[in-house]
Specification:
Helices cover 50% and strands 8% of the residues. It is built from 8 helices and 5 strands; from the N terminus they run H-E-E-H-H-H-H-H-H-H-E-E-E. It is globular. The protein starts with 7 loop residues before the first helix and ends in a 16-residue tail after the last strand.
Length: 224
């Protein structure tokens, strides 16, 4: 998730989004769509298969389990809540697309060499595959996660960060700028999440859980 630190945890990863483009007659979700990010569609099939692959790989990777159990890891712990797993995966899949837009708006081009460098960095911190699993996606998305990290670092450098000194005030300010850009970019993009998964919150950089609104006394519903 975006943050002030240049560590991978900061890169690994929401007002209520209207679901009009995802709904059909009667307000039911449009068949097969998990989320729309502009013209980019994430299908329910893709999301479900991604989470199935992740759960199988995660259980077989002790290092990923250790990383995910670390209190400093923002990813939720693996549990029986499959909806949480789906939201976590969908969050990153959306954030990958937002990060690309952030780079474009900041006038930053992320090269293949920079992504390669981020992969090397991830490998030094515990293994790119294991870190990707700890973040909630299968190993096939390791390079996507590395690109997100490379994008964050490149944008922060664009705003004066010293990547060798996390405590440098300029680095801290650049991290804040990254957060602001990410939040503002996500807020300005046409991001719509199928209501069955929740809604994307640009302020939290994540897909939040479905919230059910209790009926008010005016609606005619009375407390028992």
């Amino acid at each position: 998730m975006p943050g002030n630190s240049v560590k991978v945890a900061a890169a690994a990863g929401a007002a209520v989004i209207a679901a009009g483009a995802l709904t059909g007659c009667g307000g039911s979700p449009k068949v097969g769509t998990a989320a729309l990010v502009g013209d980019d569609r994430i299908t329910v099939t893709t999301l479900s298969q991604t989470v199935r692959d992740w759960r199988e790989q995660f259980r077989a990777d002790p290092r990923a389990n250790e990383l995910r159990a670390d209190p400093g890891n923002p990813a939720p712990q693996l549990a029986g809540d499959s909806e949480s797993d789906l939201r976590g995966a969908l969050t990153l899949m959306i954030n990958f697309r937002v990060a690309d837009e952030v780079a474009e708006r900041a006038g930053v081009t992320v090269t293949g060499a920079q992504v390669d460098g981020a992969v090397v960095s991830l490998n030094k911190q515990g293994g790119a595959g294991s870190i990707t699993l700890a973040s909630g996606l299968p190993r096939a998305h390791s390079r996507d996660l590395a690109r997100l990290l490379a994008t964050q670092l490149a944008v922060m450098q664009r705003y004066g960060a010293d990547l060798n000194d996390e405590l440098n005030p300029a680095t801290q300010l650049a991290g804040q700028k990254w957060n602001e850009l990410f939040r503002g970019t996500a807020d300005g993009m046409d991001i719509e999440v199928n209501p069955r998964y929740g809604s994307y919150d640009p302020g939290q950089f994540e897909v939040g859980p479905v919230r059910f609104r209790l009926s008010s006394p005016d609606s005619g519903t009375r407390n028992a």
